[in-house]
Design a protein that fits this description.
The structure holds two protein chains of two kinds.
Chain A: E1 2-5, H1 32-60, E2 67-71, H2 73-82, H3 84-95, E3 99-101, H4 118-135, E4 141-143, H5 151-159, E5 164-168, H6 171-174, E6 182-185, E7 191-195, H7 197-204, H8 219-227, E8 237-239, H9 253-265, H10 275-281, E9 284-288, H11 304-307, H12 310-329, H13 332-340, H14 345-348, H15 355-364, H16 370-387
Parallel strand pairs in A: 1-2, 1-8, 2-3, 4-5, 5-7, 6-9
Antiparallel strand pairs in A: 6-7
Helix pairs in contact in A: 1-3, 1-9, 2-3, 8-9, 12-16
Chain B: E1 2-6, H1 17-31, E2 35-42, E3 54-61, H2 78-101, E4 106-110, H3 115-125, E5 129-133, H4 137-140, H5 148-160, E6 163-166, H6 169-179, E7 186-188, E8 204-208, H7 217-230, E9 235-239, H8 245-254, E10 261-265, H9 269-278, E11 281-284, H10 293-300, E12 305-308, H11 312-316, E13 321-323, H12 328-340, H13 342-356, H14 361-375
Parallel strand pairs in B: 1-2, 1-4, 2-3, 4-5, 5-6, 6-7, 8-9, 8-11, 9-10, 11-12, 12-13
Helix pairs in contact in B: 1-14, 2-3, 3-5, 7-12
The chains are: A alpha/beta, B alpha/beta.
Chain lengths: 389, 376
């Protein structure tokens, strides 16, 4: 089981009248008050109670219950600034030896899709240094932002020395093949872990959906489903906020989690592994060819969530252009601000995808609609561009 | 099913959304095999229909428009009398036709002007009454000094109606909260539009509507001033007429932007379509708007649109920009963004036109028939 833990740095209201106004320091772009409120809310509903529960479960099962995390750099900064006790609880978990960490870009960015991959590499190194500093650990498995993956990314990540990479076990890549094995990219020598989206989403999305035939989902029922799977490994990659935030305590999600390890371990052919153990233990069975980027987002499972409309593409291009100016300028404050603006969530808020997915987008966005998201974000990019000379 | 529908305006004569709605609704009902007799005052423009199921019947003459206020015109004290007189004529005419051509299944009336006739007919003919509320006195007065005389007529009509159709949830809330009507009696049916072709866009920001306190043109003008400080080449058009026109012209001169703001006065239907089609931004800054068909019209012509949040339209439509009518800073921010950021305009135009396809008179007729079936 692997959990993504991330918080973006949401933006202040920034109108065209603020552009080029010299009194506004770039730190004004970020809405510290809102960010702190949301972080503290999620910490109390999700991070702290879930960490405590998982720590108890690991101890209760003598380390047989094993999990992996990816913590983003922005999440880490929130912990440091607002609630160090959240970080302490992750350190406690790591000390059990039943937990490992996954690498990614520090800013949870889309830098893997830029024309040049130098910025991507820098952000991965920043994340690597952060994990090393906090946990004295160097991850060996990589998971890109929202599992974005293609042949080029796989090649780059392999060259950077990682043993494994996670992505979505989407049918359009696997075809008839099962996600419950490791695969090898056509482009590089690295092991790919494919997310089992059916079983992962049963917990992440469908857990409390009353019209779903699987409702109510209990730990023993779920363990039976896992036990009946063919293959080497079932990759359950779940957004950490599923626990207590997307699925509220009242849905019974914590009871489900509490009983899950014992129900799984009742089946003697099942056990838990961390992602780094998984790539040690299993070999690849076949090759996958992914010329166009996939991800685990929305029904489309591609990058249209962030680059689906003209507004998103315009922002993305502007970000890349600003990058060249920022690097020529060299000012550390500007580089830091530019990187915080690269967090993929800012583009996610500008998505106009309709109906089903649109509802999910709206749930996560603090803007009234994607158009407001675009205006605000683009105004800020214009201001930053003007400030860099 | 045979419906006696009592209206006030109907194309080619129109002063507002009521005419547009009645035209779209009656035509689509007729296509669905509902027989509609549409009663309206005689005007200079001859109204008619070429559909067998739809008869447009002109009754007497009147000087009053649904948007008139008692103190508006020279008719002055005769205002109330004129309303009563027209209602009496309608009652007599509907009864005569019922006697000659057979019973109606229901009466369907629109807004306050004909409510008296509608309730009398319901009582005398013993058939159900459906009332569509396109606007209330609270909307028309912009919530400033609403006139009790209108409110009393509206409340009496709403109480006696068997079912009420509100053009938005926004309006339904007013009907429930201010007129004390039970929410179960009120169905919401959003308006629709016959799409207008897109033209060659110019750097033109459009306001179109009656220049009354309800429509918020003064907020548009204040935003125009703020936009022009940053984008001095922009042109603004204020289309329409009304009691606030002299003051608005005066304000534009005062602000020093009279060379950038064009007051067109009242436009013909073709001119309206043309101005929608060439505008780059449409703004509907209404203080209180039950629906706002003009926003649908602008968007159907591919024009990105900013609407105030106190409109029924804003609850019904996703692909538009929304502001508080009083927040002229934010209105200006959004106008400038639309002028500067081409991808924003393009996406709004494209997605807006897609969403417009959901707003058909066919759907309005279906929903209206559901309401008829509930009471007949």
């Amino acid at each position: 089981m692997y959990f993504e833990v991330h918080q973006p740095m949401r933006l202040n209201h920034f109108s065209v009248f603020n552009i080029g106004n010299n009194t506004s320091h770039p730190s004004y772009y970020f809405n510290d008050k809102l960010n702190r409120e949301i972080f503290e809310k999620v910490a109390h509903k999700c991070y702290l109670p879930t960490n405590k529960l998982l720590l108890n479960l690991i101890n209760k099962h003598d380390g047989k219950f094993r999990i992996s995390y990816s913590l983003t750099g922005t999440f880490f900064e929130y912990c440091e600034n607002y609630m160090p006790e959240v970080l302490d609880s992750f350190k406690e978990l790591f000390k059990t030896g039943a937990v490992d960490f996954i690498e990614e870009t520090y800013y949870h960015s889309l830098s893997s899709l830029y024309d040049e991959l130098d910025e991507f590499e820098e952000q991965v190194k920043m994340h690597n240094n952060m994990i090393k500093k906090v946990f004295n650990y160097r991850p060996r498995v990589f998971r890109n932002t929202e599992a974005i993956y293609d042949n080029r990314i796989a090649k780059k990540v392999a060259e950077m020395g990682y043993k494994g990479i996670l992505t979505e076990g989407t049918d359009k890549i696997l075809g008839w093949r099962s996600p419950n094995y490791l695969y090898k990219p056509v482009s590089a020598n690295i092991k790919v872990l494919m997310r089992n989206y059916m079983l992962s989403d049963d917990v992440g999305f469908r857990f409390s959906a009353r019209q779903w035939p699987g409702y109510p989902l209990t730990a023993d029922k779920y363990a039976n489903w896992l036990a009946s799977c063919q293959g080497d490994i079932i990759n359950l990659f779940i957004d950490y906020e599923t626990f207590g935030e997307h699925q509220w305590t009242e849905t019974g999600i914590f009871d489900f989690l509490f009983h899950l390890p014992e129900e799984v371990l009742k089946h003697h052919h099942l056990d838990f592994v961390t992602v780094s153990e998984a790539v040690e233990r299993y070999n690849t069975v076949d090759e996958i060819d992914v010329p166009w980027a996939i991800s685990w987002a929305d029904a489309d499972r591609d990058v249209s969530t962030w680059l689906g409309n003209d507004m998103q593409k315009a922002c993305f291009n502007e970000l890349q252009n600003i990058g060249r100016k920022v690097k020529d300028n060299g000012d550390k404050d500007f580089i830091n601000t530019w990187r915080r603006l690269q967090t993929s969530d800012h583009l996610y808020y500008v998505s106009t995808k309709g109906l089903e997915d649109g509802d999910v987008h709206k749930y996560f966005s603090h803007y009234d609609n994607p158009y407001d998201g675009f205006i605000n974000y683009m105004n800020i990019l214009q201001d930053l561009k003007q400030k860099i000379v | 099913m045979k419906i006696a529908m009592i209206g006030w305006e109907y194309p080619p004569f129109k002063a507002g959304g009521l005419a547009t709605h009645c035209y779209g609704l009656t035509n689509s009902l007729a296509d669905k095999n509902i027989k509609v007799y549409f009663f309206m005052p005689k005007t200079k423009h001859k109204a008619g229909s070429n559909k067998a199921n739809l008869k447009v019947i002109e009754v007497g003459e009147t000087e009053i428009f649904p948007y008139d206020r008692p103190d508006d015109k020279a008719i002055g004290g005769k205002f109330f009398e004129a309303v009563h007189r027209y209602n009496d004529l309608v009652v007599a005419r509907v009864k005569a036709i019922a006697k000659k051509e057979g019973k109606f299944d229901a009466i369907h009336a629109h807004d306050w002007l004909t409510m008296e006739a509608a309730t009398t007919l319901k009582q005398d003919l013993g058939i159900p009454l459906i009332l569509t509320i396109h606007s209330t006195e609270y909307d028309r007065s912009g919530w400033v000094y609403p006139n009790q005389w209108f409110i009393d007529i509206e409340r009496a009509g709403m109480q006696k109606a068997d079912r009420i159709i509100a053009v938005s949830s926004y309006t339904k809330n007013i009907i429930v909260e201010k007129y004390g009507i039970h929410p179960d009696k009120v169905s919401v049916v959003h308006n629709a539009v016959y799409p207008i072709p897109e033209g060659q866009k110019q750097d033109l920001v459009l306001f179109l509507g009656r220049l009354t306190i309800q429509k918020g043109a003064e907020f548009f003008l204040k935003s125009a001033k703020k936009v022009l400080d940053f984008e001095p080449d922009t042109r603004f058009v204020i289309a329409g007429t009304g009691d606030m026109l002299p003051r608005l012209i005066h304000d534009a001169v005062d602000m020093g932007i009279s060379d950038r703001v064009i007051f067109t006065g009242r436009l013909t239907d073709d001119e309206v379509k043309h101005i929608y089609s060439i505008s780059s931004v449409y703004v509907m800054p209404s203080v209180s708007e039950p629906f706002g068909i003009t926003a649908l019209e602008a968007i159907s012509a591919g024009t990105p649109t900013i609407v105030s949040k106190t409109t029924g339209f804003s609850e019904a439509f996703k692909n538009c920009l929304k502001v508080d009518f009083w927040d002229t800073d934010e209105m200006a921010n959004k106008i400038i963004s639309l002028l500067r950021y081409d991808p924003l305009s393009r996406t709004l135009s494209h997605e807006g036109k897609r969403e417009i396809n959901l707003f058909t008179w066919d759907r309005v007729a279906d929903r209206t028939i559901e309401v008829y079936n509930g009471v007949i």
